[in-house]
Structure formats: structure tokens, C-alpha cells
Design goal:
mainly alpha
Length: 155
Amino acid sequence: AGSYYVEHLTDELESQAFKYIESMDEMGGAIEALREGFQIQEIHNSAYQHQKEVESLERVVVGVNQYQSPTPPIEQLQTISPNETQNQLARLAKVKSERNAKEVQESLENLRTVTEGGSNTMPALIKCVESYATVGEISDVFRDIFGEQTEFTPF
């Protein structure tokens, strides 16, 4: 009974998607549109419109602007004690002192080579973890190759 309506919604979604694709094609393709900030701007505009609708109660969000729970909000967020931080740093130092530094270095160098070559990085990542390379050390390899993500702001 509702299939005509679902078909209508599907057609509408397809039409709107094609409008976005055409807009990006006119800019020179998706990559050029990305460089110009088109997609980010569309996301910002959509988020702004959504928030306006929520705040004006035009869009009901259960638990946010309607039908909130009478339960009071959590007043104290979880904190990590300085002692626990020191304990974790001590455990990390112990792991670093007991691991095979040469094996770690070799696994990180292999990860770099594989990543720069565009191959599957999973086996190299597993080897890094097995040699007790830290998340920070592994991330440093990726940061060196790819850089760090920064938010594109078109304004």
C-alpha cells in the first residue's frame, strides 16, 4: 500500500543527489569541489538548518527538545586521577624498556615502506603491534607520510 510513496521518496532522493553531483561536476569534479570547500559548506549549512529546526521545535528530537527524561543530568564527569596517569606512564616505560628496540624500529620502517608504496598496511601494522610499538609511534609514521588532518574552513 505504501510502495508508491516509498518510490516517490526514492525518486526525490535520487533527484537531489544528482543535483549535488551536477554542482560538483560544474566545479570540475568532486576533488576540485572538495578543494573549494563545497562539501564542507553543504554540511555546515545542513547542520545549521537542522539546529534551527530543533531549537524552534519545528523538528522534534525526543529527549532533546521534547519528551526529556526527568532524570537529572550527570553532574560529575569521569576524571583520571594523577596517580593512575603516573601508573600508566610507568607501565609504558616498562614496556619500552623490555621490548626489542631493534625489532620495533624494523617494524616501523617496514610500515613506512609499505605505506609509502601504497600496499596493504595491515600485516605491517600487526607486526608493529606484536613488537610492542606504541600507538604514538605507529601514528608518527602515518603523520610523517600523510600529515595531520586540519579542518577546512571556507570562510
